[in-house]
Design brief:
The structure is a homodimer of 214-residue chains. In chain A, helix 7 packs across helix 8 and helix 8 packs antiparallel against helix 9. In chain A, 64% of the residues lie in helices and 0% in strands. By secondary structure, chain A is an all-alpha fold. Chain A folds into 2 domains: 57 residues, Arc Repressor Mutant, subunit A, CATH 1.10.10.60; 111 residues, Tetracycline Repressor, domain 2 (Orthogonal Bundle), CATH 1.10.357.10. Chain A binds a DNA duplex (30 and 30 nucleotides) through helix 1 and helix 3.
DNA sequence: AGACTAACGCGAGCAACTTCGCGTTAGTTC
DNA sequence: GAACTAACGCGAAGTTGCTCGCGTTAGTCT
């Protein structure tokens, strides 16, 4: 991987390099709030940040690199709850995600990164790795639930967390509407009920049919 | 809306216009299979289709217009089942969707359209309207289920269908993996169980907490 | 404090993408 | 079948986006 698309960790963390990076990423974030991903051009970021255009191309190679770098700075902004029960955890996490994506700039960033991934293989890797890591972390919530006996022992933690996230990204990328509280509540309820029923077990129920169970 | 991004319906449907459109859209589809959305350029489509570059720009204005036009041609490729029970319908539809997205060119097309929507407001409108329409149609399946008494009467049909689709788009756009049969089965089961439990009711359960119900 | 190195500013230059004007071809109409 | 019109082919011109070389500045090391 070249200098573009890398995580953080500059050679000289405390100096001018970090300062310009800060200025540029802040400018990208602001630009995302003014017209969404469509308005994001290297030229405008250069003007807003006060950093020269050539410098942007040198360090980030293209606009895709910019949004990828910004994404990686967001890692810890959605806290992972531990309420003691899985339905409680799911609801808390769903609400956090909902609150997170209430900010249009964050939605635009997701849009921009997904769009970047469609054009640039490096951006695709960054995107996949970012969410894969988050999924594994959040999966601990499910692992605890299995240990407490709330879920079938062969439940796939990452499948559960993917199911929790999916409706939000559908709303953002496909339905293209705002993320509201109702979506968070609905999703939390749905995932909890489905997980308890064994929908996310690694080995599907042997009969192969959706279990009725009424 | 200009000539670009429009649905079908040419002024001279049976002539050269339709023939070139066919050639161009076929070329776009083939290109999507050779390197994904990143490889899609006006130049390459022109070469593959044998249609002159200037003609592409005249009729579709840009690459975004191309993929939008292609998307609209896919409307009827996923059949809507009517098996007599909602779990049966959900499973059949999930399998159809899974089979549909097993084709990498279709996945690339979705990626390309979502990416286009991030940059071009007209493409965003096409994308939203396309899925909105499909969602309403598929929602009839849920309406029938409500009439049969399988679901709470205030269940939101479109919310159910969005929940059925969401995991596939998460897989394609975020996790960036192949769509397999396990995903279809898991999703069908999850949505059925969740819908039956009232997760997709228009008015959330009054206590506001995920219903435990054990 | 002075030498050293990495990053930045600057403008010119290159390349890719997009558009335009004009002549030609195909399809429609009477 | 002959006039008419819309779409297409073609090449050139125009525009935008990106890169390069060089001089300068900021931060680091001894």
């Amino acid at each position: 991987m070249t200098t573009a698309h890398r995580a953080s960790g500059e050679a000289r963390p405390g100096g001018r390099t970090a300062r310009t990076r800060q200025a540029v990423l802040a400018a990208v974030f602001e630009e995302l709030g003014h017209g969404g991903p469509a308005a994001l051009s290297m030229e405008r970021v250069a003007q807003r940040s006060g950093i020269h255009l050539a410098t942007l191309y040198r360090r980030w190679r293209c606009a895709e690199g910019l949004v990828c770098d910004l994404l990686n700075g967001l890692s810890a902004d959605v806290p992972l709850p531990d309420t003691g029960t899985l339905p409680g955890d799911l609801r808390a996490l769903a609400r956090s995600i909902g609150a997170f994506y209430a900010d249009e700039r964050i939605r635009s960033l997701i849009e921009a990164v997904v769009s970047a991934a469609a054009r640039d293989p490096q951006a695709a890797t960054v995107l996949r790795d970012f969410f894969s890591e988050r999924l594994t972390l959040a999966g601990q919530m499910v692992v605890r639930a299995v240990e407490r006996g709330e879920l079938p022992p062969d439940t796939d933690p990452e499948a559960v967390m993917a199911a929790l996230g999916a409706p939000f990204y559908y709303r953002i990328l496909i339905a293209r509407g705002p993320v509201d509280a109702a979506l968070a509540e609905s999703t939390a309820t749905a995932v909890w009920v489905a997980a308890r029923a064994g929908a996310y077990r690694r080995t599907e129920p042997h009969n192969g049919a959706p279990r009725d169970g009424r």
